[in-house]
């Protein structure tokens, strides 16, 4: 999106303020965390995910900071910020427009799932996994959108996370973090979009699983339009 500015330049603040609130908060947290590390205000060693330090030594903040650190300022960092802002924003402005509580629930589902999976694979920073999850969900929800990779070949949106995964392999990067994001994204997609259809067709009692609680609607300011979902048939 081109943002008009005085003198024809790029108006960063206009672009920044146009980002939906949840995506903006996540982007801001990730940027400030990296800036803090670059200025030696924060040490990356105090941010990474460690099951023992979190649950045995009470360093609870690591549950959140592991999703905020994407490495030091570099081309790789800019690459991750681009995908974070783009697909987080596309989801919040698209499928989750007017459904902020549902969007937050999706992020919380990803965070909780990845937090329990991470110790199995000795993964310490999970921000990329969460970004891959959002990319996967967006791709599945926009299956007819066509995309191009470096202008070399085109493909449909559902293949985007797999193209990104292949690119990571070519660069020699470990794929564990990316695969975790894809798997958790598939879990969420099934529970949010596939399961309700199956439940309705087969007459299952539980109709929806991924339904935000009333408290989350209140916190996100979406309670006014909230309609309680009956999980069981009458």
UniProtKB/TrEMBL annotation:
Database matches in InterPro entries: DER1 (IPR007599), Rhomboid-like_sf (IPR035952)
Entry's Gene Ontology cellular component terms: endoplasmic reticulum membrane
Keyword Lyase part of the UniProt annotation: no
Native source organism of the sequence: Minutocellus polymorphus
Topology in the lipid bilayer: Multi-pass membrane protein
Lineage: Eukaryota, Sar, Stramenopiles, Ochrophyta, Bacillariophyta
Protein family membership: Belongs to the derlin family.
Spans traversing the lipid bilayer: 25-48, 60-83, 103-126
GO biological process: cellular response to stress; proteolysis involved in protein catabolic process
Places the protein is found: Endoplasmic reticulum membrane
Function noted in UniProt: May be involved in the degradation of misfolded endoplasmic reticulum (ER) luminal proteins.
Domain of life: Eukaryota
Designated name of the protein: Derlin
Keywords, ordered alphabetically: Endoplasmic reticulum, Membrane, Transmembrane, Transmembrane helix
């Amino acid at each position: 999106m081109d943002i008009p500015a005085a003198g024809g330049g790029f108006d960063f603040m206009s672009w920044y303020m146009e980002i939906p609130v949840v995506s903006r908060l996540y982007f801001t947290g990730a940027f400030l965390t990296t800036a803090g590390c670059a200025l030696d205000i924060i040490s990356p060693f105090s941010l990474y995910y460690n099951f023992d330090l979190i649950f045995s030594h009470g360093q609870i903040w690591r549950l959140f900071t592991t999703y905020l650190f994407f490495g030091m300022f570099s081309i790789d960092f800019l690459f991750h910020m681009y995908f974070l802002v783009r697909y987080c924003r596309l989801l919040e402005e698209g499928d989750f427009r007017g459904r902020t509580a549902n969007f937050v629930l999706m992020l919380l589902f990803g965070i909780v799932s990845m937090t329990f999976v991470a110790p199995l694979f000795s993964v310490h920073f999970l921000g990329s996994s969460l970004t891959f999850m959002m990319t996967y969900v967006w791709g599945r929800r926009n299956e007819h959108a066509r995309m191009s990779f470096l202008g070399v070949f085109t493909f449909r949106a559902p293949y985007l996370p797999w193209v990104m995964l292949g690119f990571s392999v070519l660069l020699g990067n470990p794929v564990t973090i990316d695969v975790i994001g894809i798997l958790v994204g598939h879990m969420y997609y099934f529970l949010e979009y596939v399961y309700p259809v199956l439940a309705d067709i087969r007459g299952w009692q539980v109709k929806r699983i991924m339904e935000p609680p009333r408290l989350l609607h209140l916190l996100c300011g979406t309670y006014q339009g909230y309609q309680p979902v009956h999980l069981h048939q009458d």
